[in-house]
Backbone:
């Protein structure tokens, strides 16, 4: 991936996404004895960075593909992102969601214009249903985190941050399916001379950490984390990027995630989702490492169910 | 109050406060069929507009007064504001707080450098104790909402907003002790040709609404509102300004306040305190009135106890 391609991606999606603000907090800087720059994708359209990848993937389709629509399976932010991006671009979006997906998430997808197709609750059932939609509608399948154009799109959050602050020592992002961290790595390689990328993951779903050790994509036996956006595992397109170029992956406990989330809500007065608190927790738990450094953190999103808060 | 004095106030406090961001929300604009500009004092130092008035009041003291310190009675945001402002300016701050004030609020005052002086829980006991501190320490009493320099200081939030958006039709702010709304009125008079100021108040503590009707300062029999910053009543310095120049006061129900707060948290991804949600609720409950208008809302603060949320 060269810089020209990444820059084209950024220019391509610009009209459809927010250049989100970068916030700082004197209290958190003091707490960590470092300079921390929060790239606030919680203020992105539909409330998460996923909008970037969804827009890019659709814009890269040819005319015939656009006419026939797109399909994905997701019950999280990517379902909403693909729905809203499709809506903007006049494309049909078919979203395969398990029957037991929360009503509030289904309502959000519908409100953005996505067509929900229900499947049974297993991963296999969801994949089978997505394949069925591809065949019946001729729709193009867009993977939430492993699609190449999605990965490039997600990298544009870090591109914006590095264009504004070109002297960061570290860039941190949470690792779920791997799209955001892989895109962030590509951005750092092309828009900075020295910036190292560090991933953050809940210990409860440390598949990426173990994948890095074993050299192959690992999965999780359980998904018992509050960071609901990070329960997935890496893919064949993003793992090679991560394996080759990531500096390290830091894993954090559940209570550390909740504490970091609380700190950001209380002190920065912004609503972030648990997944976004994971790199903040990784920073706070490793103050010595980051002392006197300049650190960018991708705050991945702000979609939380206020009736289910951990405080 | 002429514009020169207000402008001097703004320049005086500038080095000590944030020029807070003005946010907009496509979703809320669409919901109200209007253009709404949120002046986000929840991002102000110590989390509320009160910092502005506290800084201004201290800066307007003479050298001898500064040496002897300041005293106030407050268990809310002004206690924290006066503590932090005094800390910045090298002045002693004595904060009279009732014995039963929440520990978390006392801890906040201490963390900002204020000296807590405990009193019994009645208003009379607090006032007596504040007087005692004035006599013993020679400290200057600063009223949280009725001090003239506090009122001017609070007006600077609206000044910043009107400097950025000079064509607002309405400016809305919550009414508690009256300092913010009086300052906002002075700002609108001097920095806009057409902007009308509307106050918003919980029905449960509608003392300002009744004061406007009766022509004298009314109090509340109960204080049963979630908007804990608005339980106080108007003062002799701010009431004449309010009485003469306010366009109207809109009162809202408790459930409307909670719904408005939830809307802002969920859709704008920012943490606002219940008092800040009161003008948002007033807007939403009066859509016809504000249709196609440009409305500025002072989001007064973001200090909430996350363990006591109403959701």
Residues:
């Amino acid at each position: 991936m060269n810089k020209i391609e990444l820059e084209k991606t950024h220019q391509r999606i610009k009209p459809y996404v927010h250049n989100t603000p970068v916030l700082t907090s004197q209290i958190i800087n003091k707490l960590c004895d470092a300079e921390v720059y929060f790239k606030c994708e919680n203020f992105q359209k539909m409330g998460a960075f996923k909008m970037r990848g969804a827009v890019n993937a659709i814009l890269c389709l040819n005319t015939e593909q656009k006419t026939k629509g797109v399909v994905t399976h997701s019950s999280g932010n990517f379902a909403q992102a693909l729905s809203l991006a499709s809506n903007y671009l006049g494309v049909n979006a078919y979203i395969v969601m398990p029957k037991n997906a929360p009503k509030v998430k289904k309502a959000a997808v519908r409100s953005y214009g996505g067509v929900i197709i229900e499947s049974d609750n297993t991963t296999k059932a969801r994949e089978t249903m997505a394949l069925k939609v591809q065949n019946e509608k001729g729709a193009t399948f867009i993977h939430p985190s492993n699609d190449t154009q999605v990965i490039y799109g997600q990298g544009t959050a870090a591109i914006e941050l590095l264009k504004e602050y070109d002297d960061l020592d570290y860039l941190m992002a949470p690792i779920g399916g791997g799209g955001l961290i892989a895109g962030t790595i590509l951005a750092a390689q092309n828009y900075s001379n020295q910036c190292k990328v560090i991933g953050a993951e809940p210990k409860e779903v440390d598949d990426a950490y173990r994948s890095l050790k074993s050299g192959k994509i690992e999965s999780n036996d359980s998904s018992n984390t509050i960071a609901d956006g990070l329960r997935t595992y890496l893919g064949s397109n993003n793992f090679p990027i991560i394996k080759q170029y990531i500096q390290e992956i830091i894993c954090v406990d559940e209570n550390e995630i909740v504490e970091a989330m609380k700190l950001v809500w209380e002190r920065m007065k912004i609503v972030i989702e648990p997944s976004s608190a994971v790199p903040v927790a990784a920073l706070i738990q490793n103050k010595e490492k980051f002392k006197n450094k300049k650190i960018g953190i991708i705050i991945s999103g702000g979609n939380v169910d206020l009736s289910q808060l951990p405080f």
